[in-house]
Structure formats: C-alpha cells, structure tokens
Amino acid sequence: MDARGLWALVCVLALVGCLVAFVPSASATSGGVGVVDSGPEQPLLQETANETDQTANETDQLDDADEVHIDVFVHENGAATFVVDYRFENDSDANWNTLRDDVEANPDAYAAEERDDWNAILEDGENETDREMEIRNVSVVTDVSTAPRELGHVEFTFEWTGFAYIELNRIEVGDALSGFTLPKDTTLQVFPPEGYVVDGVEPSPDDPPEGSVFWDGDGTEFTDDQPWIDLMEEGNASGPADESDPGPAMPWLTVAAALALLASVGAAGWWIRHEEILAPNGASSEAEPPAGTAEPATSGGDVTQGEQETNGPPPELLSNEERILQLLDQRGGRIKQQEVVSELDWTEAKTSQVVGGLREDGEIEVFRIGRENVLALPDDRESDD
Asked: Is residue 301 a contact partner of residue 294, using CB atoms and an 8 Å limit?
C-alpha cells in the first residue's frame, strides 16, 4: 500500500472512532432509546414529600395550644355540634402567623387530621353504647381576639351523630365519651337543647354557667361512667338525683278520706248484719243475697271471678300497651321501666316507644328515681281500681 492509501485508511479509522465516541454521549443527553432519564422526576417527588411532611408538622403545632375549649351543643335528635377552639396567646407571634397562614392554605388537611383524632374517641363510644355514630361536616377557620387578652384561634366545627341516648322526655349525655380524658388547660362545656334543663350531673361541674355544664381539665377526673348528664324536658325535671326520692308525693288527704269512707261502710255493714241476726219473728240469721245477685261459683275446678280478674286474659290476646298496664296492675300501680324490659323480654327501644305512647295518652305517668325511669298509674286510675 502506498503512502496515499495508508493515509486514507488512517483517516477512515479516526472518523469511525469519533463516531463511536459521539453516539453514546448524544443518546445520554437526548433521552435516546434504551436510556432512562429520571433526573427531573426525583426532585419533584422529593418536593411533594417535603410539602406533606411540612403540613403534618404544622398540624402538630395544634398540640402546642395554650388552651383548648370544647363546646358541645346537644340536639333533641341525639346528635351534637362540637366546636373545638385551639387558642394561642400573643396572636402577633411569628409562630402563630405561620400556623394561621398554613391552616388557611391547607384547611382540608387540618380538617382531616382533626376528624381522625375524634374518630378514635368515637370508636370507643360505639363499642360502649352499641349505637351507630359518625363524625361529619368538619370545617376549620382562624380568628383573633383582643379581649380580655390577645389570642389566636384555630376553631374546628363538626357534627357527631348518635352522640346522646334519647328516652321519652329525657336525653342522657356522656356515654359516647367513654375513656375520654380532659387534659390540663382544656375545658368541656355541654349545652342542652332548647326546652331541656340539666337534671343530674356526674362528676360535679366546675362553676357551671347558667343553663349548661362546665368542667375544667385542671381539676376534673372522669371515671368509667363519666361524664354523665341527665337532660329533662322543662316541667318534668326532678332535681338532683337522689336514690331515696320516693317520686311524686302521695295524695295523703285523698287516701285518708278513702280509708275513712271504707271504715264507715264497714261499720254500717256490720251493724246491719248484726241487726238481721238478732231480728225478731224468727228471721233467719243468714242474710239472703239481694235480688238479682248471682250465686258464687262453687263447683270444683272452676276459675272464680276473683282469679279471672287477677290473671286476666292471656298475653297473646293483649296489645303492647295492655301488657304494660297489666304489669302495673300486678305491681300495685308502679314499676321500673327496666323491669318492663326484663319481664316482657322487649328491647329498650320498643319499651320506650310503647311507654311514650301511653304517657302521651295519659294512661301512665313517668318520673325519675336516681337514674331510672319509674312508670306509675295516674292517681285517678288507682282510686277507680
């Protein structure tokens, strides 16, 4: 090969070497086939994760609130509206401003976090009461106040369905908060619905405002059965629970008059019979029954009239209302509602419904002794019987 051919071969080899070196470099920079360019995606994922962590950290700042005030507005249907107010002193502080801006920028994240916290309490309440419950319509707002001191507020509002237990003319509050603790610097205030008053409270409230129940976490400890609040319709409240309370006062004057009348009738009957026995002209010493009076049944095995009145018709021939009235007759006119549940093997809901109907019709009266409902026949019905 001459010098010219050798030089041409060297040039070709140099050109091929340059092409081999250039192609991988070009592919790496242009995202060519077979090369994964993940550079831009990783920073974006990392940025999203950082934003989530930052929101969680900001949410945790609610735990640093100087005070937490929980207001519970009970409704007649057993639901309750909660207003949870996280309060921060010195609303001009940089930390408060940062928190306020973050809440306003991410209200859904804060609402979801608050819902999760209360759902944990709700689950304990459902297990304790066997009632279906739900926390819904959670919202959050921020605010500031200047009197009596400067405060920043992060305020959550939500509805808790199935919160209270309803029975006739009363609402029992507290069993849904089973296992609830009231930490220091936290208050709980419960407001009854319109037309209801507080009829019993455990434990004793702390300086309760009028028309509500108030506990301060600095000195309140709840036991397993607390908090407990008994709300009654106005006009039906019996005052503070007292196990020795015998219920409504007996009409003693009426009872005394009835006893006196019975004594007079008995004395008159004895005198008439005595006169008949000693009557002259050979009058029989056995008084004849008045005309038209049926002879008492004497045949063996027959049910007497007194026994029939005591036993009454068989239960399957009685309505639900009649069965309760029959129980009241058998118990002397009074019986605890829980005993009706046991005796008739009914659910509490069914018993409350039937009792409520009888009470509305004026067939029975309902009053409280301690924590129990007592059913009673009206005074006029007892005297008629």
From this structure: no
For the chain, the maximum distance between any two Cα atoms, rounded to a whole number of angstroms, is 183
Q: pLDDT, tens digit, for every residue of 70-103?
A: 999 999 999 999 999 999 987 667 788 899 999 9
Q: What is the pTM of this model?
A: 0.56
Q: Convert 196-248 into a string of H (helix), E (strand) and C (coil).
A: EEEEEEECCCCCCCCCCEEEECCCCCCCCCCCEEEEEECCCCCCCCCCCCCCC
pLDDT tier for residue 223 given thresholds of 50, 70 and 90? confident
What is residue 35's predicted lDDT score, i.e. its pLDDT?
Answer: 38
Burial class (CB in 10 A: 0-12, 13-18, 19+), 53: exposed
Instruction: Write out the residue limits of the CATH 1.10.10.10 domain(s) in the chain.
Output: 316-385
Neighbours of 297 (CB within 10 A): 11
Question: For residue 357, with 0-12 CB atoms within 10 Å meaning exposed, 13-18 middle and 19 or more buried, which class applies?
Answer: middle
- The tokens describing 17, both together, are 């070497």
Q: How many CB atoms lie within 10 A of CB 69?
A: 17
Note the pLDDT of residue 153: 94
Give me 240's structure tokens.
């503070």
In CATH terms, the fold of domain 316-385 is Arc Repressor Mutant, subunit A (1.10.10)
Q: Are 230 and 205 in contact (CB under 8 A)?
A: no
Cα-only R_g, the chain: 41
Helical ranges in 31-161 per DSSP H:
41-60, 94-105, 107-129
